[in-house]
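Support case: user asked for a sample of complex input and structure output to validate their parser. Sending the pair below.
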Amino acid sequence: MQPLFRILEHPADLGFEVEGETAVALYAAAANALFHLMWDAFPRSGDESLVIAVQGGDQVELLVNFLEEFIYYHDARKMVFTGIVIDSLASGSLRATARWRIFDPEYDRKLRDVKAVTYHQIAIEQDAGGRYLARVFVDI
Amino acid sequence: MKLVQIDEYRWLVPRHGKMRTDALLFLDRELLAGIQQDKSIEQASNVACLPGIVGRSLAMPDMHQGYGFPIGGVAAFDPETGVVSPGGVGYDINCGVRLLTTAMDRQAVAPRMQALVDALFENIPTGVGSRQKDLKLNLQNLRKVLEMGAGWAVKNGYGTPADLDHIEEGGCLDWADPDQVSGRALERGRAQLGTLGSGNHFVEIGYIDRIFDAEVAAGIGLRLDQVTVIIHTGSRGLGHQVCGDFIRVLQDASRRFGIELPDRELCCAPAQSDEGRAYLGAMAAAANFAFANRQIITHEVRETFEQVFGRGWQQLGLSLVYDVCHNIAKYEEHLVDGHRRRLLIHRKGATRAFPAGHPQVPAVYRQTGQPVLIPGDMGRYSYVLVGTDRAMQESFGSTCHGAGRQLSRHAAKKTARGRNILAELAGAGVLVRGAGLGTIVEEIPQAYKDVAEVVKVMHNAGIARKVARLRPLGVIKG
């Protein structure tokens, strides 16, 4: 299912906005948005599971540290991620299970080289109705 | 924000609020108009708030919005009382550029240009996730790369010792500390040495189409119609990871040291603190990786010329003119209020530009001044400048680094819709091979400012002097 995200324009790099009914949904949406910016890869049977566990001093730092995990695994180990489930989200820590496989040029297409997740204008907010919104810029 | 015009090319943000000093921007009116919608002036002012800053916060005419520092930002800090900030270096540590010249003229190369571009594209790993299959580095060797920089590459057969005399800092920051580089950074970098990467990284074959200063050009070894090669790349995933790792560390350090940050991405620590020293050691190691990377790609270029032209690269005259960093922090000596001081200089999208006679300029360029390489977009031109005494007085021996983007990637794609960009460039005499059409479209010439305008400001402000202009003939892009 296509994640709900909006591309944000930036002179040199790229940003996105995601929404979620809950904080858990928000973090999952952010991960899915990053996946869709980085590659075209769709779930297949046989995809492996990886537990991601990160910490952060605040919600924003947690989000950056979480998303950076995927950049590391992709750049270092050629892993592409096809799905994410947030297992737990507490103050300062997040645990998730991500579906992955090794990049396969027959099925997968790389879209862009994301160097890092930045703190540039990063935000996690809640609207009056309690819906969460996150804004992230990545360095390309 | 109040902006005071000093002269045609200098604008001042006077110290106000929490700024410890002024911010000085090198711009003309047209370039200033182009950045009114971004936050780069605010970012230059934010840099002026950092502890231990010496002199002014500076921004070069290619300035535009970055992370923490503006791109084009330069700032000097007292090594004892000042801070170091990854935001003043950037994610691509020691992204930089080098220029090679050849003994060939444009006419000699023209019939083989397609073959040359195709061969470069085959031989130099480019594009998203590019990896070097032929260079298998174990962790021990990777550590040596981080210690020795370009020297490791030369020692292992990628170039000659003479190359090292033509690289900023001799191609090695000798205070690098590989122990400060995380396992993740090592893992990311291990298969990427000798690769170009993607985005705005490139190898460009070109020729000199204009000489502005005949004497200096001759002193550097440049002549009209001479075929040249520009290589633009950095520290790849290793540098990106180092920056990310230390942004986390220095955010904590900023809090611990009670440093008030106008912008989170200006996180910093005292340069003499454990955290500051650790970042500087890791940053230097990543910078050395980038020096080695450009040296190995030079070797790949030389081998490719040999393959296409059937003669040795020395016979073809493939000589390294100079290699400059444009994302770096390092210790340099500068004159401040008449006194010689050791300072920690941050250049984020800015280039060192030392004048004739400076002891750090290689002996071969002591008469001319240090060559400064300013790449433009892939359709127009690039420039060679030299540093000046005025740069030492006003900008800690720094100048611009390139054109700077003016269109977002999305806007560039929109502009290119319905057009055959490769055919357009070929029609203009530029053959382009890229790992992905998407990247080429995002990098169309219209996406960038006109580098001639940027260079004009630096030349007319007396900060760097124009020597030659280069035109592209063939480009490979990541």
